[in-house]
Specification:
Strand 6 and strand 7 form a beta hairpin. The chain is elongated and about 85 Å long. The longest helix is centred in the last third of the chain and has 24 residues. The chain contains 15 helices and 22 strands. About 5% of the residues have low confidence. The chain has two domains: about 350 residues, Zn peptidases (Aminopeptidase, 3-Layer(aba) Sandwich); about 120 residues, Alpha-Beta Plaits, CATH 3.30.70. Helices cover about 35% and strands about 20% of the residues. It starts with a strand and ends with a helix. It is of the alpha+beta class. The strands form six sheets. Strands 6, 7, 8, 10, 11, 12, 20, 21 and 22 form a nine-stranded mixed sheet that branches. Strands 13, 15, 16, 18 and 19 form a five-stranded antiparallel sheet that branches. Helix 13 crosses helix 15. The structure holds zinc ion (ZN). The site of zinc ion has 6 residues, from loops. Belongs to the peptidase M20A family. This is Amidase. Pfam families: M20_dimer, Peptidase_M20. One of its GO terms (molecular function) is hydrolase activity, acting on carbon-nitrogen (but not peptide) bonds, in linear amidines. Keywords: Hydrolase.
Length: about 475
């Protein structure tokens, strides 16, 4: 055991509203009352922080150990070269959860389970207060990989081990959260349990979610069956967090392509989903000249092509994943087409501008002048609006400083906006939050071949560890 490292708390102040309206738990003015002795502590803390190293071999061994529960399809010859199939609240998920509870308890944590089966493992600090947490999820897609979610939890557990190895005493509690059914693969709302914790999804609705595939199990019945229906209310009020940091694989190609190691995640992009209906006139393909056609499919195809071109110009994304047409006959011009349109961009204003532009352009596409035949009709329905999420500057700063400290080079670190949703979205509604991305091989995720190399996993875990400690230190030292 090394000498104890004490992350000192100099004073306490009760919680206060920060400028974003969170109940934040700082901290006090460092400048007004610091002494030489305190300054020395501050400086030695920085050096101490950098001496805390993640054990890469231990991290990866433990990660693969937990992948014995819910092992999926092989993609290579080695025992660890498989995907994962660990649906939320399945027997395999229960085994992984049992491991998480036992392991974190053995590392000195108290463990609480809430009414959504979210597990909070909390390691005490010198002072009481809400914990600064690392959080992610142990559930996977039915044909998922070994890193999505799992790496975030395992890095959190490695953090607890490093703190224990070095006898680190944090100013306030720190912890690890396993959020239930993040994937939404078995119970079809993703991030449902962090959503209940955030007060944005009603508990009853979540409990009554029925498993996909025609089974009769609900979230509540499965929570009961595997013994994870906790007595703690699933709410940020019953379990407030001081901050939430999530290490996650990028699930995209950017870090790998740019040969960078860490993405400092500043937020999550905005998206809107629409259903577009195009109505024309059914007619015989052999007897109807172009000048007499009202071809709904041709108009829809032009709309889809236009949406992609236009989104590209705005550094946004547009996608059509569902398309149906009637009557669906080889020799009948389609009279009706319905397609989905998913529009995403880092800023709400970009998504709004694209919506406006699409509406104007689609109206032109259906005009007689444009079709060269009959006019067709277009109607829009907005199905979902998800505003951009902007993470908290204090957490982003902690991650950036940690990333530069761990990698040793600013060039290996980039700011990013997440393209996918994560539990951090809901966490960010009630506590300062940020995320850390590590490279995904070939940008692949939700696939057995999802892979992040051990070195990158360890770098990410060390950035997570430092981010949590930097935030804890910030709480203790900085106004
Ligand atoms: Zn995930």
């Amino acid at each position: 055991m090394n000498n104890p490292i004490v992350i000192r708390l100099l004073s306490q102040r009760s919680s206060q509203q920060c400028k974003r309206g969170f109940r934040c738990y700082p901290i006090r003015s460092f400048t007004s009352t610091r002494t030489h002795r305190q300054i020395r502590n501050w400086e030695s803390d920085e050096a101490a922080l950098q001496r805390l190293k993640v054990n890469q071999g231990r991290l990866m061994d433990e990660l693969h150990h937990t992948c014995q529960w819910g092992t999926g399809k092989p993609w290579g010859v080695a025992a660890t070269e498989t995907g994962m199939s660990r649906l939320a609240l399945s027997d395999a998920d229960k085994q992984a959860r049992d491991w998480f509870v036992e392991t974190t308890q053995s590392l000195g944590c108290s463990v609480q389970v809430d009414a959504m089966g979210n597990i909070f493992a909390i390691r005490p600090g010198r002072e009481d207060g809400p914990p600064t947490c690392a959080g992610s999820h142990l559930d996977t897609q039915p044909s998922g990989g070994r890193y999505d979610g799992i790496l975030g939890i395992l890095a959190g557990v490695e953090m607890l081990k490093v703190l224990k190895d070095h006898n680190v005493q944090t100013a306030y509690p720190v912890g690890v959260v396993n959020w239930t059914n993040e994937e939404g693969a078995r119970f079809p709302i993703s991030m449902v349990s962090s959503g209940v914790w955030a007060g944005e999804i009603p508990l009853d609705r979540a409990h009554n979610l029925q498993e996909v595939g025609g089974g009769t199990a609900t979230m509540k019945s499965e929570l009961e069956r595997i013994g994870f229906l906790g007595s703690l209310p699933a709410s940020y009020k019953a379990m407030p967090l001081a901050a939430h940091f999530e290490l996650h694989i990028e699930q995209g190609p950017i870090l790998e392509a740019e040969k960078q190691k860490i993405g400092v995640v500043k937020g999550v992009q905005a998206y809107r989903w629409y259903t577009v209906e195009v109505t024309g006139r059914e007619a015989h393909t052999g007897t109807t000249p172009f000048s007499s056609r009202g071809d709904a499919m041709l108009a829809a195809a032009r709309m889809i092509a236009l949406s992609h071109d236009s989104a590209r110009k705005h550094s946004a994304l547009a996608s059509t994943g569902i398309l149906t047409l009637t009557p669906g006959s080889v020799n009948t011009i389609p009279g009706a087409v319905r397609f989905s349109l998913d529009v995403r961009a880092p800023l709400d204003s970009t998504v709004e501008a694209l919506e406006k532009e699409f509406k104007e352009q689609f109206a032109k596409i259906v005009s007689k002048e444009s079709t060269g035949g009959l006019a067709v009709e277009v109607n829009w329905q907005t199905d979902s609006v998800s505003p951009a999420i902007h993470f908290h500057e204090d957490c982003i700063t902690a991650v950036r400083e940690a990333a530069v400290s761990v990698t040793g080079k600013e060039a290996l670190v980039r700011d990013m906006v997440s393209g996918a949703g994560h539990d951090s979205v809901y966490a960010s509604r009630h506590c300062p939050t940020s995320m850390i991305f590590v490279p995904s091989r070939n940008g692949i995720s939700h696939n057995p071949e999802e892979y992040t190399n051990p070195e990158d996993c360890a770098i990410g875990a060390e950035v997570l560890l430092q981010s949590v400690l930097r935030y804890d230190r910030q709480r203790a030292f900085k106004a």
